Structures are given as structure tokens and as C-alpha cells.
């Protein structure tokens, strides 16, 4: 039985194609992926991200606990600020990549829908060695993402709130909405945690204001153009944040944390693989699992690939061995049995 | 799905290709239903002229933003023409699946096989039966 967000009937009313995703029945597109993608790049779009896992961490030990289970440094978090972080296992592999929010009374961990059960049981298990920490599902809220160059204008207008002073990765409580200047598209924008009772109304207000409803299809092409990782593609339990290019979110100087020894060792002995961008020639699109070669040598695998609506060409992310993964190198991607020449490029195909 | 055209005068395959027969030549493309299911088409790969296919052989691929799908030959025969225009404008498959986005023409090897294709009415039932 698939789970649904409170917005499922709204999606159907708007004519969305609805598909199973990570145990949820979610809209993949309404008008079409490319039109939705372009709306976010040039104007503003809204996504139902009610499938994202919201986990509440409460208690006097909450900061010590989060310091131990995440790679980033929570002591650097100001009140009403969030940070990107990774939950690692002892081997340094990623259990999930998350946002950690410091709220007035508690902390929130926002995790991937596909990992929610795993993350909540991992956190609950880790919390046992702390006094006074409780971990629970933050079940009363459902999230929306408002993304695009006009996001501030529309959020201000629809919610009647001034957001011009809200900086990146900062949050604001507004009535019963947690507004956070974050996103997963490479554009400016906000993620709104809205009470489940209110979320249909809030969604409708944005749709009526002319904001383009966008599905998971555009969410994927947008994040891929921006070079942002997706768990299950760029991350898994055999992949470390250093390999994924997130060493800036691993703070070795903060004290002990789960996975630290393994990550330190990897840092000293060198990475086994490295996440890079690939720009293939021609119109064929590399897909996850396609092998990458130089000559006869298999040097890595594509983790995500798509047609980039902004650049109007194929783009891909791939793990390559670090010697071959240097910027500018020429490689070949095997797509349906044919070798397609490609260049190793920066992961951020698009920067606003 | 009822608003997606299924022209009465042409034949269909269970794999969502359409076939327009003209003498011993068959023109082949994918249906409005198929392009709608796939979403924005961004790449079409077609075979070289002269290549021969049996029924159900893969004759090419069509890629949407999200996925790759095989194109299956609904009638056996030799390819006599391909639609080069789809190379630069794959989005025609979404805009004009039955006209501008025809994909290949084949010289029909065995006209008796045409009887195995679906009528518009049968194809309509197939798309609704999903």
C-alpha cells in the first residue's frame, strides 16, 4: 500500500501523472518535465515534497547526539539555521544525506523518503547511548518547495510575509509555517513545512497565484543540472561523503563522530572513486549503470544521466577512479553497447 | 486518456506503434498514447536504410527525459526510408505523433502478417484496459 501526502487529490485535479516513488504515490509531472523545469529556472514552481522524512530530536543531549551521528559541526549552527550533513556508518559509508535544523525547542533532521525507516531506526539506536535524547517522527507537518528566481516575490505575496532578510539556510516561523531558504534545484527558493491541516490550502493559494506545479521529474533534472547528489544514485552505504565531493560537510576537527576513523583513513590514503560530471557528445543520454571507459579500461560508472533542458544536451554524473576523473579528461561512455565520447567536467552543469 | 487521438484508418501494435499501409509500403511511428505516457521526447534513434527486421525486432529507441524505450517493428520488412527530421527535432514525437513524427518506412515482407495488427477500436480498448 502506497503512502500519500495530503495533496494527492490536488495533484489528480491538476492532471498529474502519478507514480510510485520510495513507497509514496507522487506526481512525476503535470504539464511536462521540460516546461516545469523551465518554469523553475526562469520564474517559479512549487513541489509537493511531503514524502521527505521529518525527524524531531528533543532533549538536553540533542546537540551532543547530533554531533556524534552527523559529519558536519552542529556547534556552528545558530538558532533558526540549518546545515547540510551526512549520517555515516562506522565504515564512513552514507546512511543518508540530510539537513539538520536548529529550532527553538528541538532539532529537526530532514531525510530522504526512501531512507526514512532506516534513518529513524538508526538514530533511535544511536540515541540509546545518550541520556535525555528522544527521536521521533515529526508527523504533523508536510513540506512544500517553492523554487525559482520569483520565489521570494510569490512567497511574500501569497503568505504576506517579508522574506528579503531571510538568508540562505535560515528559517523563519510564520504563523504555523516553518519557512526555510533552502532547496534542491540550484535556484533561490524556500522549503515550507506546513501543518498537514493547512497544507492543501497553502498549496491552492500558490497555484491560484499562478505558480507552476512541478513534479518529481523536474525535481530530478533540476538537481542534476545543479550537480546535487541523490541518495540511491550518488550516495549509498558503500560511498563516503569525501568521494561524493562533500568534504566541506565533514568536520574532522569537531571531536568524535560515527565514521570519523574510516573517513580520516580514506582522506590520508586517497579516495577510491570520485564523483564527476560528464558531458557526452551527441544526443544520446547516459543512464545510471552505464560503464565508463578509457580505451579498454573500465574506469567507473554513471550514477545519473538526463537530458538537460537548460543546456539542451545530455549530462551525467559518474564515479570514476580518481586518476581518470581529472577535469578535461576524455573518456567513453558505453550506452546500449556503443561507445560515446565524453569529457570530464565540473558537476555543476548549471549555476545561477 | 480519452482525448488522445487514435485515427480509425490506420493499424496498431500492442507495443503502441502505428502502421499506415500504402501498397507494399508501411509507415511506422508511435501512438499519441505512447508519447503521452513517455513525456517529453528528447532523442530518437532509427536504423540505417536497408536494414531488415522481423516482427517484434527492436528497430530503434526513443528516449524521454526520464527513460529509454525500445521501438518494436510491427511488420517484417526492409527499411526504405527513415525520418531524418527527428534527429534534430525529437519533440515532434510529442507534437505530431501520426504525421510529422513518422519514424520509418518498410517494404512489407509478408502482407499476411498485417492481419495480426489491431484496429483502432481494438487499440482503444487496449489503452483503456490498463
UniProtKB/TrEMBL annotation, chain A:
<dbReference type="GO" id="GO:0005829">
    <property type="term" value="C:cytosol"/>
</dbReference>
<dbReference type="InterPro" id="IPR028896">
    <property type="entry name" value="GcvT/YgfZ/DmdA"/>
</dbReference>
<keyword id="KW-0032">Aminotransferase</keyword>
<comment type="subunit">
    <text>The glycine cleavage system is composed of four proteins: P, T, L and H.</text>
</comment>
<feature type="domain" description="GCVT N-terminal">
    <location>
        <begin position="8"/>
        <end position="254"/>
    </location>
</feature>
<dbReference type="InterPro" id="IPR006223">
    <property type="entry name" value="GcvT"/>
</dbReference>
<dbReference type="InterPro" id="IPR029043">
    <property type="entry name" value="GcvT/YgfZ_C"/>
</dbReference>
<dbReference type="InterPro" id="IPR027266">
    <property type="entry name" value="TrmE/GcvT-like"/>
</dbReference>
<dbReference type="GO" id="GO:0005960">
    <property type="term" value="C:glycine cleavage complex"/>
</dbReference>
<dbReference type="Pfam" id="PF08669">
    <property type="entry name" value="GCV_T_C"/>
</dbReference>
<dbReference type="InterPro" id="IPR022903">
    <property type="entry name" value="GcvT_bac"/>
</dbReference>
<keyword id="KW-0808">Transferase</keyword>
<feature type="domain" description="Aminomethyltransferase C-terminal">
    <location>
        <begin position="273"/>
        <end position="351"/>
    </location>
</feature>
<comment type="function">
    <text>The glycine cleavage system catalyzes the degradation of glycine.</text>
</comment>
<dbReference type="GO" id="GO:0004047">
    <property type="term" value="F:aminomethyltransferase activity"/>
</dbReference>
<dbReference type="GO" id="GO:0008483">
    <property type="term" value="F:transaminase activity"/>
</dbReference>
<dbReference type="GO" id="GO:0019464">
    <property type="term" value="P:glycine decarboxylation via glycine cleavage system"/>
</dbReference>
<comment type="similarity">
    <text>Belongs to the GcvT family.</text>
</comment>
<dbReference type="InterPro" id="IPR013977">
    <property type="entry name" value="GcvT_C"/>
</dbReference>
<protein>
    <recommendedName>
        <fullName>Aminomethyltransferase</fullName>
        <ecNumber>2.1.2.10</ecNumber>
    </recommendedName>
</protein>
<feature type="binding site">
    <location>
        <position position="191"/>
    </location>
    <ligand>
        <name>substrate</name>
    </ligand>
</feature>
<dbReference type="Pfam" id="PF01571">
    <property type="entry name" value="GCV_T"/>
</dbReference>
From TrEMBL, chain B:
<feature type="domain" description="Lipoyl-binding">
    <location>
        <begin position="25"/>
        <end position="107"/>
    </location>
</feature>
<dbReference type="Pfam" id="PF01597">
    <property type="entry name" value="GCV_H"/>
</dbReference>
<dbReference type="GO" id="GO:0005829">
    <property type="term" value="C:cytosol"/>
</dbReference>
<dbReference type="InterPro" id="IPR000089">
    <property type="entry name" value="Biotin_lipoyl"/>
</dbReference>
<dbReference type="GO" id="GO:0005960">
    <property type="term" value="C:glycine cleavage complex"/>
</dbReference>
<dbReference type="GO" id="GO:0019464">
    <property type="term" value="P:glycine decarboxylation via glycine cleavage system"/>
</dbReference>
<comment type="similarity">
    <text>Belongs to the GcvH family.</text>
</comment>
<keyword id="KW-0450">Lipoyl</keyword>
<dbReference type="InterPro" id="IPR033753">
    <property type="entry name" value="GCV_H/Fam206"/>
</dbReference>
<comment type="subunit">
    <text>The glycine cleavage system is composed of four proteins: P, T, L and H.</text>
</comment>
<dbReference type="InterPro" id="IPR003016">
    <property type="entry name" value="2-oxoA_DH_lipoyl-BS"/>
</dbReference>
<comment type="function">
    <text>The glycine cleavage system catalyzes the degradation of glycine. The H protein shuttles the methylamine group of glycine from the P protein to the T protein.</text>
</comment>
<dbReference type="GO" id="GO:0009249">
    <property type="term" value="P:protein lipoylation"/>
</dbReference>
<dbReference type="InterPro" id="IPR002930">
    <property type="entry name" value="GCV_H"/>
</dbReference>
<dbReference type="InterPro" id="IPR017453">
    <property type="entry name" value="GCV_H_sub"/>
</dbReference>
<protein>
    <recommendedName>
        <fullName>Glycine cleavage system H protein</fullName>
    </recommendedName>
</protein>
<dbReference type="InterPro" id="IPR011053">
    <property type="entry name" value="Single_hybrid_motif"/>
</dbReference>
<feature type="modified residue" description="N6-lipoyllysine">
    <location>
        <position position="66"/>
    </location>
</feature>
Amino acid at each position: 500500500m502506497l503512502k500519500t501526502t495530503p495533496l494527492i487529490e490536488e495533484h489528480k485535479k491538476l492532471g498529474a501523472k502519478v507514480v510510485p516513488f520510495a513507497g509514496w504515490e507522487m506526481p512525476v509531472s503535470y504539464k511536462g518535465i521540460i516546461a516545469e523545469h523551465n518554469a523553475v529556472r526562469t520564474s517559479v514552481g512549487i513541489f509537493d515534497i511531503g514524502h521527505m522524512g521529518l525527524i524531531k530530536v528533543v532533549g538536553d543531549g540533542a546537540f551532543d547526539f547530533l554531533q556524534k551521528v552527523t559529519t558536519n559541526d552542529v556547534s556552528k549552527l545558530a538558532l533558526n539555521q540549518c546545515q547540510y550533513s551526512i549520517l555515516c556508518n562506522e565504515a564512513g559509508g552514507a546512511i543518508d544525506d540530510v539537513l539538520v535544523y536548529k529550532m527553538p525547542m528541538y532539532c529537526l533532521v530532514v531525510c530522504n523518503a526512501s531512507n526514512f525507516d532506516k534513518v529513524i531506526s538508526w538514530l533511535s539506536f544511536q540515541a540509546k547511548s545518550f541520556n535525555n535524547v528522544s527521536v521521533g517522527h515529526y508527523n504533523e507537518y508536510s513540506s512544500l518547495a517553492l523554487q525559482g528566481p520569483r520565489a521570494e516575490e510569490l512567497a511574500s505575496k501569497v503568505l504576506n510575509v517579508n522574506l528579503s532578510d531571510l538568508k540562505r539556510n535560515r528559517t523563519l516561523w510564520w504563523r504555523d509555517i516553518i519557512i526555510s531558504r533552502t532547496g534542491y534545484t540550484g535556484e533561490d527558493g524556500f522549503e515550507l513545512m506546513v501543518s498537514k491541516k493547512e497544507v492543501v490550502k497553502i498549496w491552492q493559494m500558490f497555484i491560484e497565484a499562478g505558480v507552476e506545479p512541478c513534479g518529481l521529474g523536474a525535481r530530478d533534472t533540476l538537481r542534476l543540472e545543479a550537480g546535487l547528489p541523490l541518495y540511491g544514485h550518488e550516495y549509498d552505504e558503500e560511498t563516503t561523503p569525501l568521494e561524493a565531493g562533500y568534504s566541506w560537510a565533514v568536520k574532522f576537527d569537531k571531536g568524535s563522530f560515527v565514521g570519523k576513523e574510516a573517513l580520516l583513513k580514506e582522506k590520508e590514503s586517497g579516495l577510491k572513486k570520485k564523483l564527476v560530471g560528464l558531458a557526452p557528445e551527441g544526443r544520446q543520454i547516459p543512464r545510471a549503470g552505464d560503464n565508463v571507459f578509457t580505451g579498454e579500461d573500465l574506469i567507473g560508472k554513471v550514477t545519473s544521466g538526463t537530458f538537460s533542458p537548460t543546456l539542451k544536451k545530455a549530462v551525467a554524473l559518474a564515479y570514476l577512479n580518481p586518476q581518470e576523473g581529472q577535469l578535461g579528461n576524455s573518456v567513453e561512455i558505453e550506452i546500449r553497447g556503443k561507445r560515446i565520447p565524453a569529457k570530464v567536467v565540473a558537476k555543476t552543469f548549471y549555476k545561477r | 486518456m480519452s482525448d488522445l487521438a487514435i485515427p480509425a484508418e490506420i493499424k496498431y501494435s500492442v507495443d503502441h506503434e502505428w502502421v499506415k499501409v500504402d501498397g507494399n509500403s508501411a509507415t511506422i511511428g508511435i501512438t499519441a498514447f505512447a508519447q503521452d505516457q513517455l513525456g517529453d521526447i528528447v532523442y530518437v534513434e532509427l536504423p540505417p536504410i536497408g536494414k531488415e527486421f522481423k516482427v517484434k525486432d527492436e528497430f530503434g529507441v526513443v528516449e524521454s527525459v526520464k527513460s529509454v524505450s525500445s521501438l518494436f517493428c510491427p511488420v517484417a520488412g526492409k527499411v526504405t526510408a527513415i525520418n531524418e527530421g527527428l534527429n534534430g527535432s525529437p519533440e515532434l514525437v510529442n507534437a505530431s505523433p501520426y504525421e510529422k513524427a513518422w519514424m520509418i518506412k518498410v517494404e512489407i515482407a509478408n502482407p499476411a502478417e498485417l492481419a495480426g495488427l489491431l484496429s483502432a477500436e481494438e487499440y482503444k480498448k487496449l489503452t483503456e484496459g490498463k
